[in-house]
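Changelog-adjacent note: as of this version, every example in the card shows the full chain rather than a window. The one below runs 415 residues end to end.
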Amino acid sequence: MATANNLRINGDRLWDSLMEMAKIGPGIAGGNNRQTLTDEDAEGRTLFQSWCEAEGLTMGVDKMGTMFFRREGTDPDALPVYVGSHLDTQPTGGKYDGVLGVLAGLEIVRTLNETNTKTKHPIVVVNWTNEEGTRFAPAMMASGVFAGVLSLEEIYAAKDAGGKTVGDELKRIGWAGDEAVGARKMHAFFELHIEQGPILEAENIDIGVVAHGQGLSWQQITLTGRESHTGSTPMPMRINAGLGMARITQLVDEIAWSHAPNAAGAIGHCDVYPNSRNIIPGRAVFTVDFRSPDKAVIEDMEVRLKEGAKKITDEIGLGLEIEKVGGFDPVEFDADCVATVRNAAGRLGYSHRNIVSGAGHDACWINRVAPTAMVMCPCVGGLSHNEAEEIYPEWARAGADVLFHAVVDTAEIVG
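Full-length structure tokens:
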């Protein structure tokens, strides 16, 4: 039996697993298109299932299609330590976002099995359904239902662009389980993820110890002006919704900069009507995305957006509607779990620093119902949600090693 300090994952085997999974749902530019509840998602799930069952793990599937693979512990009454992430991707996604965390969880089990290492607590490797939220909104869907933040009935009724529902598609691909969502109790949850940002690579740091997750506020703004001919309408007589959107875009940027460096803001999705080259826009609908690890900062940004947008639209003569269409409070991960990650990185000799997760992750919701922490490794250029997303094998190995030790320290080696 191995001792805790000399245990390491097999980095080559982990990398081979990543490349094998990437063959399912290939993108058009080297990445992946394995969107949730598609045939490609089903194929990826089946491959993952085969790997887990080859290691002697028992599978459970809940009504959201989330997959749980359990390795027994020596204490039948001890709560399990959970580890994992998601296998679904963006339409033009990379090979590592989410997938690294799931397959690193599997690699933990493989290493424990081949070293005949037992733990007091069971270990459960999990693949959460629809973290990305690209085909079906919202993101972090299954973990949100698990944590009681989202309603199973409402999520089942959510539709994609073609009118297909989550509930029907779960059944169609054969992954609608019987287990009640959220019935499981956890001793702790750990998630490994690529940073999806440039900080770790820029500072040549091996490991990000995620102490906090940014809060998020999505505000949908509708501006109503008057459509009129671009060429024949005098400038003083225009009520231009496109101009209002442009000025509010600048306002959003100014608000975010005022809280730099830890806040962010931008206009993401936008629609301009009638979207004709010779018609002044009569309506614009767009979404403002504000993020910060400080709830008071998010609230300040929301207030300043409403006040500034009102001033801009009054000056132009536009109608203004603002609706909050999404968001969650900043996350502070469990101090003991965070310390376990930090100690593991230090013990293994990896350079590390505290980091705030700029993106939402399943861990953000699970943190509400169980002690939770995250590990991050660098990604090239900070690029993610892009087929050009890339990491190096040594980064994956380092992240998985730290994850391994955090999980095993928490699950407690026996003997």
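Structural remarks: The mean pLDDT is 96.
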